Amino acid sequence: MSYSPYAPPRHHPHPPYGGYGPRFVYQPLGWKTTAIVVGILATVILEMATTGLTWALGGGAGETGNMAALMATGLLGLVQFGGSLFTIVVFLMWIHNAAKNVRTFGHEGLRFTPGWAVGWWFIPIASMWMPFLALREIWRASEPDGVGRGHPGGWMTAPVPATFNVWWFTYLLAGFVGAFAALPALLNPGSAAASAPAISMVSHAFNAVAAITIVVIVRRLAQNQDASHEKLRAAEQAGGYGGPPGYGGPPGYGGPPGYPPYGVRT
């Protein structure tokens, strides 16, 4: 087939990702959201139950009672560890999935890649604020009002609920208080600190607030992404949106500003 420089541009199908670099296909957060909600709430309950049994164990019950409480505490701790590990893995998968999804909405100026939206959780010091900023960006980019033709950067001004600040503040507090509760045992392993279980309960209280707020966030964010995806799909079917400038889409749109739409002669 010979090439003709005078032939009109060919129509290119609208890609799943509007922009240069990797292309992404929208994947609903579905089961990951459900698993996170169940896992987080179950983990918080198990943590408080384990601490409560530990407190009772140090209260001077009989030897038989202490042995039973010790076995129950060990079993709960094992279940809690497994549940926490599962929830953490799914939560990181959820963040990676959500960060890829926003790249199917045609946004410009996204700062956090899917990989780094997860990776910042493992960077010392920076993990105290960067994961929060990454998830906040995903939230803003998921708002249905910020997607659509003519709004490539409108997502940046999307409001973020106060729930975000409450979640991150109580999450950090729970970690700091929990570390403080474990400090006596680390400094003097031979002595049991009577106040440690009480301090741990304070940590769990902050953790419970953080758990409730992050559950609200992940559920709402998943709903927003589904709504944004449906909005774009409906607009594409109606021929009202064909992707960001530079890519071909439905007839009547495509190409950089200043050029006629693909398939349209002037």
Q: What does the radius of gyration come to? A: 25 Å
Number of strands: 0
Overall geometry comes to elongated
- Gap between N and C termini, in Å? 25 Å
What are the low-pLDDT stretches, counting only 5+ consecutive residues below 50? 11-20, 242-266
Please state the average pLDDT score: 78
- Number of helical elements: 6
Q: What characterizes the major β-sheet?
A: none
How much helix is in the residues?
55-70%
Element order: H for helix, E for strand: HHHHHH
- Which secondary-structure class do the elements indicate? mainly alpha
Percentage beta strand = under 5%
Task: Give a verbal description of the structure.
There is one protein chain. The chain starts with about 30 loop residues before the first helix and ends in a 29-residue tail after the last helix. The chain has about 270 residues and is mainly alpha-helical. The relative contact order is 0.15. It is elongated, with a radius of gyration of 25 Å. The protein is built from six helices and no strands. The protein is about 60% helix and about 0% strand. It has helices at about 30-55, 65-100, 115-120, 130-140, 165-185, 195-235.
